[in-house]
Amino acid sequence: MRILLIRLRQIGDVVFTTPALNAIRRRFPNAHLTYLVEPTAAPVVAGHPALDDLIVIETRKGLAGLAGDAALVRRLRAGRYDLAIDFHGGPRASLLAWLSGARQRLGYDVVGRGWMYTTRVHRPRALRPRHSVENQWDLLAALDIAPPTRAADPVTMPPTAAAVRIVGERLARAGVTEHHRLIVIHVSAGNPFRRWPLAGFVALASGLAAADPSRRVVLTAGPSDRRAAQDVLTNARDRLPESHRAHLLDCDDFSIAELRALVERAALFIGGDSGPLHVAATSQVPIVGLYGPTLPVRSEPWRSERWSAIALEVHGLSCRPCAQRVCEPGDFRCLGWIRPEDVLAAAERLLR
């Protein structure tokens, strides 16, 4: 049996499908599993033990885009898939599932596109207080796969040997030894709706570094927010005495694979509801998550409750959750009202 899995878009979206990958492998142990993914999230499933093949598709416009899509369709047709599962449900993903020619095509009963699937699963249009892993798992009920549990079906992203080596070398150059407690703070997010104010990160990073000489704090960010991370680093160091400034490390950028290897070494991860937090959730590292327009019940770490996590959010806002297109109050208060002292207290609690 040959199975095609489709999940386009961002890192966290793909992380949330990894429990399903393992379940499908258990259900069809001899099947050939291919995953279709976009470049940004490809490292999440590259080399995943449940998969046999990975197809990474580019998003290009014009004639190059048309030529690329035509070649992709030919490749999918040549795969002769028996089953295609579209975890995404967007226009392009629906079309690719249909064009794959798979005899059974499993997807959501979305308006205008449901006809592209042979088996359709209802998906409410309104946001539900239900985890994204469970929402995507609804598709697997049609395959007689039992509902997931956090302990048995956690999100997974095994660290690669190459990334472990690179991260180890970079930390060694920064003076980090096995006697240090590493804290990773991710200061950026995919959009301004999920970005905690930089002043908060400055207070947090300096507070954590000052409290214990054995700590080493690494600030990470996406490529577009590298300048923001540098500003946080500079301002946080200015708050510290000279003897403590080296506790805040400047390790440059980490790829997604390297970030996964980095959190494997960490005593704590802190960040907003974005891809890096979900990558961190594939480890056992304690996590402090900062939730603004999104709800923890939908996107908190999906893993065994043995591994600690604290979700911080502002309660009582009528505008929350939101679609992240326009901030109704105009001040992003859902994140801006999370106080640095509360994040610091949560971090200290997990570090103890």
Give the SSE layout.
Elements (H helix, E strand, L loop, with lengths): L1 E5 L4 H5 L2 H10 L4 E6 L4 H4 L7 E4 L5 H17 L4 E4 L4 H9 L4 E5 L10 E3 L10 H6 L23 H13 L7 E6 L11 H14 L3 E6 L5 H13 L9 E2 L6 H9 L3 E5 L2 H6 L6 E5 L4 H4 L9 E5 L19 H4 L3 H12 L1
Parallel strand pairs: 1-2, 1-4, 2-3, 4-5, 5-6, 7-8, 7-10, 8-9, 10-11, 11-12
| Biggest sheet descriptor | 6 strands, parallel
- Which bin fits the share of residues in helices? 25-40%
Secondary-structure arrangement, i.e. CATH architecture of the largest domain: 3-Layer(aba) Sandwich
**What is the C-level CATH assignment of the largest domain?**
Alpha Beta
Q: What's the tally of helices?
A: 14
- In CATH, the homologous superfamily of the largest domain goes by the name Glycogen Phosphorylase B
H/E element sequence: EHHEHEHEHEEHHEHEHEHEHEHEHH
Mean pLDDT: 93
Tell me the β content.
15-25%
- Alpha-beta classification: alpha/beta
Radius of gyration: 21 Å
Strand order of the largest sheet: 3-2-1-4-5-6
The shape, in one word, is globular
Low-confidence stretches: none
**What is the domain tally?**
2
Q: Per CATH, what is the topology of the largest domain?
A: Rossmann fold
Q: Terminal Cα separation, in Å?
A: 49 Å
Please count the beta strands (DSSP E, at least 2 residues each).
12
